[in-house]
Specification:
The chain is α+β, with helices and mostly antiparallel strands. Helices cover 48% and strands 11% of the residues. It has helices spanning 8-20, 31-38, 60-71, 121-126, 154-160, 170-173, 176-188, 194-206, 226-238, 241-250, 259-262, 267-276, 281-286, 292-299, 303-320, 333-343, 347-356, 361-369, 380-385, 392-407, and strands at 26-29, 51-56, 79-82, 87-92, 95-101, 103-106, 115-118, 136-138, 147-149, 162-163, 191-192. The strands form 3 sheets. Strands 3-4-5-2-1-8-9 form a 7-stranded mixed beta sheet. Strands 6-7 form a two-stranded antiparallel sheet.
């Protein structure tokens, strides 16, 4: 198997250290095995691997400590252990290593966090999401003896460019796997096999989870809240997100986030505008939900981003109201600036309103990009030098001169 980026001696050192601790097997698992096999696929450009996940049948911490001791601090500049989870993260020769004890998982209820207990390498593979991620390269003390463990035909599915769930309850147990499927499909150009697509459709239709949209956001299970947000953030940060979102739409999977997003014709245009304005894309996506702020609360977006979404709603209501201070088509830059700044809305909220494409998007955009930055021609110090006295009157004069300048701009 082609594993460019890692010193082959490390792949023989780790099982030797494991044998010294009395452990039976240690294996390379997950993305490194998948990508190593992809490197062998005809017509695929070879990629250098940076992240390596290892599973050991035993306690991962002593093995990681032995590896750190053997390599020394220059080769292992940082080392973080999580004894409660029997996992270790470390850097070795500039590569990211994660070592974990083999485990099995059971779900006490759909979409809840699983209960984890020690297990074998085979049981550890059963907790994976897709067959292409459920392969293990069992390490030996010679690289020629490396053994591929592939109980779910992941290598075949990889060759065929297919994404296949491990079992019939994969989506029911963890609906975030659907977002991960959209990510992988967009990254690798794979397709979600027909039976897997059917599982997504049926699971979303039957909704096997106790929580439903509209219920108290605080009561939603982790896989429909925080873990779902994390997967969406990875989708925007690491993948061709336009195609990934199209995958979610084609599979009818936006209902996992909010039913309004499935029938959102402005999604792509809104996200393109948000990207152009340098705004986070996840809040922009949620603007297509039936209740954006409630969805943001359930997904536990940062409080500031939740506040932006609430302000967007206020801003839109204000622009459509019949109140005396509501915007008029003849308003000048000074009128818009005074009104928006009096409301105290964050510039990000105004930017998100631009992304929505409201009929007043042009003055909102100009305020975000230019008008709000415009100041009086003279600074406070210059006015003081002219004889003004520090105090409220000076502030009022600066504001007056700023508005005069805005009145003649465009």
């Amino acid at each position: 198997m082609d594993l460019p980026g890692i010193n082959p001696q490390l792949l023989t050192l780790i099982p030797r250290l494991a044998r010294g601790l009395g452990y039976q097997r240690v294996a390379l698992v997950g993305g490194a095995v998948r990508d190593g096999l992809l490197n062998q696929k005809p017509g695929t450009a070879s990629s250098v691997l940076q992240d390596f996940d290892f599973v050991v049948e035993g306690d991962a911490l002593p093995l990681a400590e032995a590896l750190q001791h053997f390599c020394g601090t220059k080769r292992v500049p940082w080392f973080r252990s999580h004894p409660a989870f029997q996992t270790v993260a470390m850097e070795v020769d500039g590569l990211s290593f994660d070592l974990a004890s083999a485990r099995r998982e059971t779900y006490p209820a759909p979409a809840e966090n699983p209960v984890v207990e020690m297990g074998s390498l085979e049981l550890d593979l059963t907790r994976r999401d897709f067959t292409i991620n459920a392969m293990a390269l069992v390490l030996k003390e010679t690289t020629a003896a490396l053994e591929l463990l592939d109980p779910y035909q992941g290598a075949e599915h990889l060759l065929n460019g297919e994404l296949v769930f491990l079992h019939d309850d994969s989506v029911k147990d963890d609906p975030t796997r659907v977002v991960r499927a959209a990510r992988y499909a967009s990254r690798f150009g794979f397709v979600l096999r027909e039976d897997a697509r059917e599982q997504v459709f049926v699971t979303v239709r039957d909704w096997p989870w106790s929580w439903r949209c509209g219920d108290d956001p605080a009561t939603s299970p982790p896989a429909l809240s925080t873990r779902l947000r994390m997967e969406l953030e990875l989708l925007f940060d690491q993948e061709p997100w336009c195609q990934a979102l199209q995958n979610l739409h084609d599979w009818g999977a936006f209902a996992l986030i909010d039913v309004g997003l499935q029938a959102d014709p402005q999604r792509l245009l809104r996200l393109r505008w948000a990207q152009r304005l340098g705004l986070p894309l996840l809040p922009a996506l949620l603007l297509g939900a039936e209740q954006p702020q409630a969805v943001a609360e359930r997904l536990q977006l940062p409080l500031l981003q939740q506040r932006w979404l609430g302000q967007v709603e206020e801003l839109l209501m204000w622009m459509e109201s019949s109140s005396s201070d509501a915007p008029q088509s003849h308003w000048s830059p000074a009128d818009w600036t005074m009104a928006l700044e009096a409301k105290g809305w964050n510039v990000e909220a105004v930017g998100l309103a631009v992304a929505i494409g409201h009929r007043y998007w042009r003055p909102l955009l100009r305020w975000c990009g230019r008008w709000r930055h415009l100041r009086a021609a003279e600074s406070a110090q210059q006015l003081l030098d002219q004889g003004w006295t520090s105090g409220p009157a000076l502030g009022a004069e600066l504001r007056r001169r700023r508005m005069e300048r805005l009145a003649v701009t465009r």
